[in-house]
Amino acid sequence: MKKAEMMRITIRAWLESQWIWADSHQRCSLFPQKVKSWHKNLSTTCSICSKSKRLERKRNLSEKKLSRCFVDHRKVRLTAGKGGDGISCFHSEPRKMYGGPDGGDGGDGGHIILKVDQQVKSLASLLPLYRGFDGEKGGSKNCYGAAGKSIYLKVPIGTVVKEDNEIIADLNQHGEEYVAVYGGTGGKGNRFFLANDNRAPETATEGEPGEEKVLSLELKTMAHAGLVGFPNAGKSSLLRAISNAKPAVASYPFTTLNPHVGIVHYEGYEQVAVADVPGIIKGAHQNRGLGLAFLKHIERCRFLLYVLDLSVPEPWTQLRDLKYELEQYEQGLSKRPHAIIGNKFDLPQAKSNLPLLKEQVEQRVIPLSALTGDNLEELLLHLKDLYDHYVKTEERQSCKPMKW
User: Which residues are within 8 A (CB) of 121 and not within 5 positions of it... i.e. 6 or more apart?
Assistant: First the structure.
């Protein structure tokens, strides 16, 4: 019996030793995984630990989200805050009779203020409706109500504010402010009406409503250069080729219904803004095909780039019709500094039409292909010359040129 019991104890001790070894081996294999998960849960405030956490890869934005439209005019309805009401109450304190009126006045309503910010380039961030903060009502013990906070709307440099087609403000300096609508005045509490002949007034007035206006905001200058042409001339493709802008491109007309602005970078941190204006048609000055809305965009460009389709027969008629529409809309608009671009030069019809176009046009014609990128360097150099001429003209007239 003693031998059998000794054998049983020996076998049990051996099995326990095997279990302990297996358990420790399993723990050692799980330890790195626990450490890895522990590192993931560490706060990124520690610079050493944050390196072990991989940065999550951001999703690539779709081209639809990247193609943001440029807004150079906006109509907004502004309503300032209402003034707070005054209250009617009397002072109440132990062992003090006839404490008298102590109703406080209400706070004034908040204003809505337009503030110029040089970092803002478009009016796209403005909403169609704004309402100011109301003032708080007065309190007892002659406490005044808090005034409503003012709302600041950031607008670009060169914003013109119109009301009923009349200019009421011209904002040209960074940090310049214009109070568009004033908040209502706060009401008076009964303490305000205390007089010798009225020692216990119970009268209190309500706060006045804030001003309400419908304003039209417009930019005097939308871009340095404007691409002018008929539909399907390749303006959007050209803007894609010379800048990082992503306007929609398709084989049907009127693909672009809102202007897009691209930035062309040069040495010395010079930036030239080029606007892709929606295509105009014959009779645009009579508002055919939203012509007046499109011509307004062209009016806000300092110099023009006429984009002609060389693949169509008689391309010089496009230039003649474009200048006619601009001149009918505003006298002298077609005479602004400009360049003539013959697009789609990669097509066989275009190469035969180019000599005919140069015979009909006295000015320099820049043939190029926005699709293949041929001869884009000549356009970029000429664009820089137009920009330098614009800067010198503005400085000669003691005006500050627009910097993007």
Answer: 70, 156, 261, 404
Which pair of structure tokens corresponds to residue 318? 């496009």
The token pair that represents 391 in the structure block? 């800067």
| 3-state DSSP percent of the chain in helix, strand and coil, to 5 | 30, 20, 45
Tokens coding 277: 């204006």
Q: Residue 172 CA to chain centroid, in angstroms?
A: 18
Residue 215: closest CA among 183, 167, 182: 167
Angular region, 289: left φ>0, alpha ψ -120 to 50, beta rest: left
Tell me which residue of 127, 146, 138 sits closest to 81, measured CA to CA.
146
CA–CA separation, 400 vs 404, rounded Å? 12
Structure tokens at 104: 């406080």
Interatomic CA distance for residues 22 and 113, integer angstroms: 74
For 190, the token pair is: 């009964």
**Cβ–Cβ < 8 Å for 222, 120:** no
- Record the tokens describing residue 194, joined without a space: 């205390």
CB 196 within 8 A of CB 71: no
**What residue has token string 């474009």?**
322
- Distance, CA of 107 to CA of 262 (rounded, Å): 47
What's at 64, amino acid-wise? K
Contact 77, 118 (CB under 8 A): no
- pTM of the predicted structure, to 2 decimals: 0.67
Residues 6+ apart with CB under 8 A from 65: none
Total residues found in the chain within this entry: 404
> What pLDDT digit, counting tens, does each position of 331-381 carry?
888 889 999 999 989 888 888 888 888 888 888 999 999 888 888 999 999
151: left (phi over 0), alpha (psi -120 to 50) or beta: beta
pLDDT in tens, 158-178: 889 999 989 999 888 888 999
Give the other-Cβ count within 10 Å of 328's Cβ: 16
